[in-house]
Structures are given as structure tokens and as C-alpha cells.
User: What shape does this take?
Amino acid sequence: MEKKTASLYRTDNAAVLISIAILWMVILFVLSQVVSISTDRTFSAVITVSAFAVLAALTATSIALLMHLKKNKIAIYTEEIINQNNNQSAVEKL
Assistant: This one.
């Protein structure tokens, strides 16, 4: 059970970190494209500040999620494993 819990925890952490990295890359790419075609410096500044505000919020919520997963790892993943086993048993009965 501990190995399965650790495996699920690592998988979830990897998924969150990969998602953060992809979203950062997408938002920074879009930001660079928008700023490159913008002729107004004020517009570019507003868009840049907005993009970094979104990235800050995204990063903060993702860190909170990782902390929640770490703090409640046993309860979350034990319940998930039990539910997976129950679902498999129900499918096998069909």
C-alpha cells in the first residue's frame, strides 16, 4: 500500500509541475507575441503586468496544491486506492 501511495503521489506531483511549466511557457510565448505587435507602450505594460499576475496566481495555487497533497498524502491516496479496488470489483461482477 505504501509503494502504491508513493507512486500516486509522485505521479500527481509530476503532473502539477509539468502543468506549471507548460502554462508558463504558453503565457510567456503569447505575451512576447502580443508585446511584439503592440504599438502602444501603455498597452504593453498592462498586458505584461496582467500576464505576470496570472503566472503568480497560477504558481501560488499550484504550490498550495502540492503542499495539500504532501500534508494529506496518506488519506487522499488510501481513499483513492480503496475506490479503485471497489470499482474493479464492481466491474468484475458484471
DSSP finds three helices and no strands in the chain. Residues 2-85 form one domain. Residues 2-37 form the longest helix (36 residues). Helices lie at 2-37, 41-71, 73-93.
